[in-house]
Amino acid sequence: MKVIKMENPFEISKAVSQVIISKINEKPDCVLGFATGASPVETYKRIIEAYEKGEVSLKNITTFNLDEYCGLSHENKNSYYYFMKENLFGKTDVDFEKVNFLSGLSGNIEDECLAYQKAIENAGGIDIQLLGVGTNGHIGFNEPSESFSDGPFRVKLAQSTIDANSQYFGEDEEMPRYALTMGIGDIMRAEKIILIATGASKAKAVYSMVKGEVTPLCPASVLQNHKDVTIYIDNESAALL
Ligand code: F6R
User: Fold this and answer.
1) Per-residue pLDDT tens for 109-131?
2) Has 67 been annotated as catalytic?
3) Does residue 48 sit within a domain?
4) What domain count does the chain have?
């Protein structure tokens, strides 16, 4: 596990976007695993800036997002599909035909999950998987549990996840209690993993992920077993290390 501490989230976004942009320029049809939430947003801004300056084209990449809320359509402003359209895809030349998402509306969850796992395999696997980490140590929506998952599955969101994410939902909107997520196995099969954790609220999770035992009670701790993972943290999230 390589841990890189930087001064602030802006510096992290410059470093992480550079790794992603270099990968795209070296392998224009690379396969990227993306995350939503606050952690990657600045990085996405730097990628958009590079695209606008003509330094990178995203038109041949294939993307897989980690997770999606159950019950939300692509048009729903709270869906992760919408988030990615607003914060990255729609502001670049990404080919939406090559954008892959678990469907929160699928009537057959088992088939949906199997098809997603197959699609990752058929694309040749993920070259770089970008991650954030939950305050409870979740990655994707793999919440603390008794065992590590392998492929995609439907998950009941933990109360701490509901508490952290309900701020994004309006007063008259109810945050879904379930989501579909890539499994730990899917994440671990990525060639390279980059995780961003910033702010004091992540300090405990960062400590358990980096220094704690490998246990499904802190899903991110499994990353200690990956051959190429880089964790980018700032002073606040590094406070307990
Ligand atoms: C999002 C995801 C989650 C988030 C995590 C941190 O697609 O899979 O694991 O990365 O909840 O969220 P933020 O970055 O909002 O603190």
Assistant:
1) 999 999 999 999 999 999 999 99
2) yes
3) yes
4) 1
